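thought: user wants a sequence for this fold. calling inverse folding tool.
action: design(structure=
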């Protein structure tokens, strides 16, 4: 009678021995799966972290309402200086409005950062004010404030010179991060640099307590403008809700799955060809086609486990290094995406192993035993 080895211990012992018999090839396959996990998690972590950190900084300004031009982007870096500064006075006269602060948002192309040109008194009044770590508010047109994270990243001290928007500024104060931008300069200076006389990018508005009432008043005053409450803005600032980021994330996920699929397909196909005689012996001993497929799939899943462990270790290790070397860079890896990355790694690897597995299951014992 044919002998059947169907117990779970045997079905997992054979694949483990096969992986140990070819350590270099097995390691390279596991590295490819790990690369897939790292690629997915780091890309998602970077996009999610940047968006979440930006939303937190905007929330930290202390405003209840934001007034932007029509069709304005939720990414302030793409906002132009098209609002007349005089609109702020009309908004301030509304019954439900407490404080209005005009802000000119300018992108520093040299450092790929956003600089806020602010009216210090009104901007500071939106919340409890800037929390100074060192120094004082800017007093002259060529002075700037830096938040503590960018100061640490650039090793800035009070009195240091920093180039922003092609202009030299003296750091007069270092403030706690979380107030919108990394650097703050006087509004008039920003307008001169951007050639935006008497124009701003956005008005931050604080209500007297009833946000919806104040927002309704602003909408009646400026019906064609983009008027968002802070609560509405924060719901939009989610990487999964942003149509601009979805194609990018999907492309990275697809690329990662394709890498895992192709590497496993090539590895398992080569492995099956090398073990033709072994497959013939197993079938002669009584292994069914399903048993052969299970062996190949189990071997693949063991590689997935190894690759996922290495991938997660590399991902969180890289995140820790980046947090130390780039304090202004935020990486936020949602647990749901960790589960997705593991699932996608398993699906891609198993899909790549199916063709070699079915090919191995179809081999004839007599021909296999005669194979050289």
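)
observation: tool returned 372 residues.
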């Amino acid at each position: 009678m044919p002998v059947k080895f169907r117990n779970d211990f045997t079905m997992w012992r054979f694949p483990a021995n096969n992986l140990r018999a070819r350590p270099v090839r097995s390691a390279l396959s596991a590295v490819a799966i790990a690369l897939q996990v790292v690629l997915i998690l780091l890309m998602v972590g970077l996009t999610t972290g940047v968006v979440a950190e930006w939303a937190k900084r905007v929330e930290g300004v202390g405003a209840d309402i934001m007034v932007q031009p029509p069709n304005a982007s939720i990414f302030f870096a793409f906002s132009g200086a098209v609002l007349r500064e005089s609109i702020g006075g009309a908004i301030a006269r509304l019954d439900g409005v407490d404080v209005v602060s005009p802000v000119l948002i300018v992108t520093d192309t040299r450092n790929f950062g956003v600089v806020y040109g602010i009216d210090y008194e009104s901007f500071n009044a939106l919340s409890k004010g800037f929390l100074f770590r060192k120094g004082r508010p800017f007093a002259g047109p060529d002075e700037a404030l830096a938040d503590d994270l960018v100061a640490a990243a650039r090793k800035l001290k009070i009195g240091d010179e920093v180039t922003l928007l092609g202009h030299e500024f003296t750091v007069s104060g270092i403030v706690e991060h979380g107030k919108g931008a990394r650097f703050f300069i006087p509004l008039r200076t920003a307008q001169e640099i951007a050639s935006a006389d008497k124009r701003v990018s956005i008005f931050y508005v604080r209500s007297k307590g009833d946000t919806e009432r104040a927002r309704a008043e602003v909408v009646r005053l400026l019906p064609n403008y983009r008027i968002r409450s802070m609560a509405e803005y924060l719901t939009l600032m989610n990487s999964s809700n942003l149509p601009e980021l979805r194609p990018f994330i999907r492309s990275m996920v697809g690329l990662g799955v394709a890498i895992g699929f192709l590497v496993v397909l090539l590895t398992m196909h080569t492995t099956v060809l090398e073990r033709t005689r072994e497959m013939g012996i197993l079938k002669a001993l009584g292994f069914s086609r399903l048993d052969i497929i299970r062996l190949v799939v189990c071997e693949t899943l063991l590689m997935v486990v190894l690759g996922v462990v290495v991938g997660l270790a590399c991902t969180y290790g890289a995140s820790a290094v980046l947090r130390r070397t780039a304090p202004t860079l935020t990486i936020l890896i949602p647990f749901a995406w960790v589960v997705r990355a593991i699932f996608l790694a398993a699906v891609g690897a198993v899909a790549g192993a199916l063709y070699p597995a079915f090919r191995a299951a179809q081999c004839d014992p007599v021909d296999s035993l005669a194979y050289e």
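thought: summarizing for user.
answer: Here is the designed sequence. Residues 1-6 have pLDDT under 50 and may be disordered.
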